[in-house]
C-alpha cells in the first residue's frame, strides 16, 4: 500500500495550482506572492519556503509543462513493424496531450509570460524543443533503417507536429476555440501522418 502524500507535498501542489490560476487570470507581472498564498490557503511564509521567488515558482510550473510533454515521448521505433501504425500511435499520443486541459493551462501561462518577458522565454523554448526529441528520435531511427528519406530529423518532426498544432493547439490557445472532438482529432492525425509518409517514406 502506498503511503499517503505528505502535508508539505499537498501544500506545494496547492501553491502550484493557485499560481497557475492567478497567472492565467492576471498575468505574471500582476500576480503577487501574497495573492498566490491566499488562493492556496497557505501562509506567505509557506509559499517562500517552497519557492524563494516568483521566478522560481514560475520555473516550477514550466517544469510541470515540460514533464507533461515528456510523457508523450515513450514510443520507440520498431524496425519489425510497419511505419504507419507506429507513427499513428506517436502522433495520437501528441494529440491527446494537446487536448489535455491541464497541459493547455500550463501552456497559456508559459506563453503569456514569455510574450511580456522575452528573456524569460529563451530558456523555455530551448527546453521545450528538447522535450519533443521523442518524435525526432523516432524519425532518425527510421531514417537509419532506410525507411524514411534523409533530411534533418528535427526539421521533419517540426513539420509533422506543426500540422497538429495548427489545428489542435494554437487556435485553442490564441483564439479560444473549442478543443477538437474525437472524430476531428482522428481526421487530423491520419491526414498528417499520411501526408508525412507520402513525402518521406521510402517505398520498397
Overview of the molecule:
Keywords: DNA-binding, Repressor, Transcription, Transcription regulation. This is TetR family transcriptional regulator. One of its GO terms (molecular function) is DNA-binding transcription factor activity. Helix content is 74%, strand content 0%. With 204 residues, it is mainly α. The protein folds into 2 domains: 1-52, Homeodomain-like (Arc Repressor Mutant, subunit A, Orthogonal Bundle); 60-200, Tetracycline Repressor, domain 2, CATH 1.10.357.10. Helix 5 (83-98) crosses helix 9. The longest helix has 20 residues, at 7-26. The chain is elongated, with a radius of gyration of 20 Å. It starts with 6 loop residues before the first helix and ends with a helix.
Please write out the topology.
Blueprint: H1 7-26, H2 33-40, H3 44-50, H4 54-70, H5 83-98, H6 101-116, H7 118-131, H8 133-144, H9 153-168, H10 170-175, H11 182-200
Helix pairs in contact: 1-2, 1-6, 2-3, 4-6, 4-7, 5-9, 5-11, 6-7, 8-9, 9-11
What distance separates the N and C termini? 52 Å
- Radius of gyration from CA coordinates: 20 Å
Secondary structure: helix percent? over 70%
Q: Could you tell me the number of beta strands?
A: 0
DNA-binding region: 32-51
GO molecular function, one term: transcription cis-regulatory region binding
Domain HTH tetR-type: 9-69
InterPro entries: DNA-bd_HTH_TetR-type_CS, Homeodomain-like_sf, HTH-type_TetR-like_transc_reg, HTH_TetR, Tet_transcr_reg_TetR-rel_C_sf, TetR_C_Proteobacteria
